[in-house]
TrEMBL record:
Protein name according to UniProt: Oxalurate catabolism protein HpxZ
Originating organism: Serratia nematodiphila
Pfam families with a match to the protein in the record: AtzH-like (PF11533)
Signal peptide (UniProt feature, chain positions): none
Matching Gene3D superfamilies: 3.10.450.50
Top-level taxonomy: Bacteria, Pseudomonadati, Pseudomonadota, Gammaproteobacteria, Enterobacterales
Entry-linked InterPro entries: AtzH-like, NTF2-like_dom_sf
């Protein structure tokens, strides 16, 4: 793939909108939007800080059981890169107020007939040095 297919402005704008919509839903615990933005398929994977989830059903179950408090966080070093018209990778670091841990998050986004969806995600936490 040559560079003219990477980070096309219109595609990048779409993915940025989806990414920040997801982020707002995450910190406000809007389970409907969180569910909407994941691919509804058994092949969807989400590796969390303490869990490995395989398929949309496990991801939905996790979201229903997750505590809804303490979700505020600040993003840093967010990088979104698009490849062609229908694939993107989003990477960011985050920290929560009052915590000395730094989180890392990566998502693979694919544009499906229903819109941009996360098909794979990974979240991890590091103790501050």
């Amino acid at each position: 793939m040559n560079n003219e297919h990477i980070d096309r402005p219109a595609v990048l704008a779409e993915v940025n909108a989806a990414f920040y919509r997801y982020e707002q839903a995450l910190i406000s615990n809007d389970i409907d939007v969180l569910d909407e933005l994941f691919w509804h398929d058994a092949r969807t994977v989400r590796y969390g800080a303490t869990e490995s989830l395989y398929g949309i059903d496990e991801i939905r179950d996790f979201r229903q059981r997750r505590p809804a408090n303490g979700l505020e966080r600040l993003l840093e070093n967010t990088q979104i890169t698009t490849f062609g018209e229908d694939m993107a990778v989003a990477s960011t670091e985050f920290h929560r107020p009052g915590s000395n841990r730094r989180g890392r998050q990566m998502q693979t986004w694919v544009k499906l007939p229903c819109g941009w969806r996360i098909v794979a995600a990974h979240v991890s936490l590091l103790d501050a040095p």
